User: Fold Integration host factor subunit beta from Geoanaerobacter pelophilus.
Amino acid sequence: MNKSELIETVAAQKGLSYKKAEEIVNTIFDAMTDAMIQGDRIEIRGFGSFVVNDYKAYTGRNPKTGESIAVKPKKLPFFKVGKELKERVDKD
Assistant:
């Protein structure tokens, strides 16, 4: 499922226009993004949690040339699936 399919599903299930459902989905995604930018953890019970992991700088290697390169520190979002969702997906 992609974002437009999610918007269509929300619109159909709640009897909303596509435009209104799009506003709702975008508002949720924007709020989640803003929270992660601020370093907050997002937890949705039964679904999972989103956190931002900090990675330190390190010396990497260019696989094509074998040359050593400096990799800058970075922050990346990480999703950890919740127990309930894991069990529902693996229910076969």
User: Anything to note?
Assistant: Residues 36 and 52 are 6 Å apart (CA to CA).
